[in-house]
Amino acid sequence: MELRAELLKSIWYAFTSLDVEKSGKVSKSQLKVLSHNLYTALNIPHDPVALEDHFSDDDDGPVSNQGYMPYLNKFILDKVVEGTFAKENVDEFCWTLCAKKNYRPKNGVDVLPDKDAFHLWCLFNFLSEDNYPLPWAVLQNHLPPFFPLFMKMPCNNVEYLLKKICIAMSVELSCVDMEDFISQEAVQQSGITVWAFLDFVNTGRLTRGMVKDSVTMAIDEVYQEIVGNIIKQGYLWKKGHLRRNWNERWFSLQPSTLHYYVSEDRKECKGCIELSHNCCVEVLPEKEGKRCMFCVKTLTKTYEMSAPDTKQRQEWTTAIQTAIRLCVEGKKSLHKDLKLRRREQREERERRHTAKEEELQSLRLLQWERESKLAELELLQEEQKRIQHVELQRTLQEQLQQAEEARASIQAEMALKDVETERQRRRIRELEVMQLHLEEALHQEMRARQDEEVYFLAQARLLVEEEEKMKALLALQEEQEQYILKTQREKQELRQEMVTKSQALEEAQHQLEKVRASRHRMDQDIAAAQRKLRHASTSVKHWNIQREDPLLEAQGSQLCLCPPYETRAYACTIRGTKERRRSEERVNISGREEMCLYQASNEDMDCA
Hints:
It holds the Pfam family EF-hand_SWAP70_N. By secondary structure, the protein is of the alpha+beta class. The chain has helices at residues 2-18, 28-42, 48-54, 69-76, 87-102, 114-127, 136-139, 155-168, 175-182, 185-190, 194-202, 212-226, 310-329, 334-383, 389-545, 553-607, and strands at residues 232-239, 246-253, 257-261, 269-274, 280-284, 293-297, 302-306.
């Protein structure tokens, strides 16, 4: 329906430009040409027979009584498919027809080129109201007398359009020039038409001191934004998905898509980002030598971009959020939504103005009734001054009191309505403030989410570092456990060796004790042998004294045999004693060495 309404505006201008006599009738030949061009511009199949068949019932006049609108709806507009044609071509065709008849700059002044005038004409049609000053009864050969033949734009929309153009040119709109234009007699009588608007722009009041190229660029920018439904466009750096390199692209943002091209002529489209309620925009920190970065996240991909400065990044993020909001709300055009809001505000102001006018009219009526009643009372007083003086005076007082009460009630109602109006204004201001707070809260929440993601990344890095340190600690602990096990094994071996040596020492000590006991016995035997030797020596001496006695020679020879025998026993005893002493010394030395080794092993184990 929106596309049909926009097409009808342009076609309305083309039809009225063919109506030279302003009678609401156009010849069939002209309608054939118009229909043929509409078929071509709208990219629908041609049907040259349909027009003749439709108007074949009446050949008396230029157009049959059925009118052109039914044919336009049935054979042209009903076959239109959105997206299969360029609406700019239709607008350009209709502008070519109507501009030849109606666009004539005054006094030969032509500030605007034809392309700029065409763009302003399209902007005017977009912002004009949908109700046609020339109703479709004209297209059906029912033209009311003295009906205006041009669509009009409300003053607030004209002011809005002029402000947008001035902002694009970086100049300020002069309120004096605007008021002079609106207060013109022609504008007051017939309203602001597109031709009056173009004449005002051609006067050069808005473009004083401006170069034509700057004016053309400003008008083209506003045209692309409002008619082309482009929320924002400009150059950004984009990071690729395959080669991961950075390329400068021309981005064009619309309510549901974000296209990017090789250059601003938009001939080669490199890609399109589909926006939906699942998308979001996030600001990124500087990395890879790029600053002022942000990203657009969808369900499947994340697109990283870099703006020239912080202001541009803020403008782009805000514009993309606005586009996502329009997608969520199911709105296809930002400026259509703003246009509806301005219309609602204007209708609300008109309703309030009408209500105030009605109240003032009722007050004037009451005042007139009061004055008329006062005049009647004066006449009655003059005629019946003497007869009904008291009665007329009482009646007059009652009427005056009723009038005062009525006036007081009306004033009270007006006061209540003024209070209600003020309350509504305060409510609107509160809603606007609330909207600003909500937007600020949304920005804060987005910043909080970004900070939270940064914290999560830092926490992940800390966890990775902690895991690496834990692995190193576990490796050290495992190495320490292996060293402890090795030390324990060595300690166990040393203990076993010490136990073995202790047992050997005990055996050596036991043997030493045995040797000592044997030594003691040998000492006793030696002592006994020495006693026997002394006794034998004494006996030898005694027998040597008595050797001279011949009687005793035989016995002496026997006695002489004893000393050698005892002498050999004594020598053996002496040798055994020396050997026992040497063995005891060897045992003592080996025992001391084992004790030293035992102490050294204990010291090594304590050190370990």
